[in-house]
Every structure is written in C-alpha cells, then in structure tokens.
Amino acid sequence: MGAGRLVGRVIGAAVAAVLLMTGATALAIWWTARQDSRPGSDAIVVLGSAQYNGVPSSIFEARLEHALELYEEGVAPVIVTVGGKATGDQFSEAEAGREYLADAGVPDDALLAVQEGADTLESMRAVGTQFDDRGWDTAVLVTDPWHAMRAERMAEDAGMDARSSPTRQGPAVQTRTTQFRYILRETAAYLLYRVTGESVAGAPGIG
C-alpha cells in the first residue's frame, strides 16, 4: 500500500470518527431533552437567561414557571436562581429570577440567588460552592431541553448529583427549526467542553 493511500485512509477514518462522535452527541442531547427527572432533592436550580431591568425574558420566565411547579410538587424545599449581571445592568439574572418567584408566593427562606456566572460553567461552579457550604448534594436543574445534558455534566463536574427537568414551554421549543438549531449549537458547545473543559458564550442557554 502506498503512503498516499495510507494517509488517505487515516484521514478518512478520523473524519468518520468525528462524524460518529458528533452524531452520537446530538442524539444524546435529543434523548436527554425528552427526559424529565424529578427526584426529591436538596434544591431546584434554575439556570439564568436574559432579563430586562429586572423582568425575566420569555425564555427565563418559562424556566421560572417550571421551577415553581416543581417546588409546589415538593421536589425540593429551596429554589436556587443563578446568573450574573451584564455590563450596564441594574439587576443580575439571579436577582430577577428570585424576585419573580417571590412575587409568585415562594417564601424568602426557600429562595437563594447565586449572582455569579457569565455562562453555564461559571454559574455551576458558583452553585457548587454554595452546595458545599450548605452540605447539599442533590439538585434538579431547570433549563431548556437542549441545554439539559451539558448543564447536568457541568453540575456534576462541580460536585453536584444533578438531574434535569427541562421546560416544555417558551421560544426554545416553539418550532422544529428552532429545536434543530439549538441541538446543533449545543452539540458543538458540549463537545468543546468535553475536549477543553471550557464553556462558550452564546445565545440564551448556550453559554
């Protein structure tokens, strides 16, 4: 076999392996998005998204409403809202989420705002620290369906025993085109994290 043919086969095998891994990751993201785990846990953790002067965006509101449903079902005694503050903002995502849930009737002692994190990885590490400080272990994560697998992985890497209960409402699940786009973006973000250990900034639920 000539050297050229050998190199060609090696390159072909490498391309096939990358395509296989990418396809398997996309399928796993799709599968995880369809699950809904609601085990009794120490806390419900709501991943932040955009807020406007303290008012949650439609994506964030869908997550908060789902977390409220889980809390009322008795899944956990505490809801943790997560997310930092963008330059120029008066409110952090965590603050906006906390106030939304307080207005919905959740008691103050059942709410914890973790106002750190410009992306999912930073937020999960900050939440992991709070869990350690309080002796908590288990969490149910609330985010968009396509974001659930990466959020679970990052939470587990931050020391939490995490499951996810994704939202079924909001812009991220409105159309098949939107769903397909989010799955593609999440596949790239998840693979990047697994390879580099870093997150990536992007659209709501992607960073």
TrEMBL record:
Pfam family, one: DUF218
InterPro entries xref list: Cell_Envelope_Assoc, DUF218, Rossmann-like_a/b/a_fold
GO CC annotation terms, alphabetical: plasma membrane
Annotated ranges, domain DUF218: 42-188
Name of the protein in question: DUF218 domain-containing protein
